[in-house]
Task: structure prediction
Amino acid sequence: MFSHIMFPVDLHLPPEVRRAAEVAAEVAKWQSAKITVVSVTGSQPGDPVQTHAAINKELSAFTEHLAKDSGVEVDCRNIHSVDVAAEVDSALNHAAEEIGADLIVVGTHAPRITDYIFSSHAGYLVKHSKVSVFAVR
Result:
């Protein structure tokens, strides 16, 4: 049914990401699918400046841990953005098409009042992606 799962991550690893990682791993095992971990990063006010190498190291460590725990093939891709807040949704949507994912497993938070005005990242993917999206709370 699914052969390639895209798993977007925030490298700060909020609880929603950890839970979604478990779900992505279980679905990948069940479907014999590959996982590609995708992160959109860049300099943001208030964040310590990280080099591209440091970000890739952190992303690779997360990827290796997920592969070891799940026993499935896991790859990673970091997308650099000049303005993460403005570009993250479209960058993730484009990445899913580019890597040929047929399922996106994404962590999300419970609805908040601001979600009625601005869509969450998961909400954006659900509305705009051409592939199936599994939003995990």
Summary: Helices lie at 15-31, 52-70, 84-99, 121-128. The mean pLDDT is 89. Strands lie at 4-8, 34-41, 74-80, 103-107, 132-136. The CA atoms of residues 41 and 80 lie 5 Å apart.
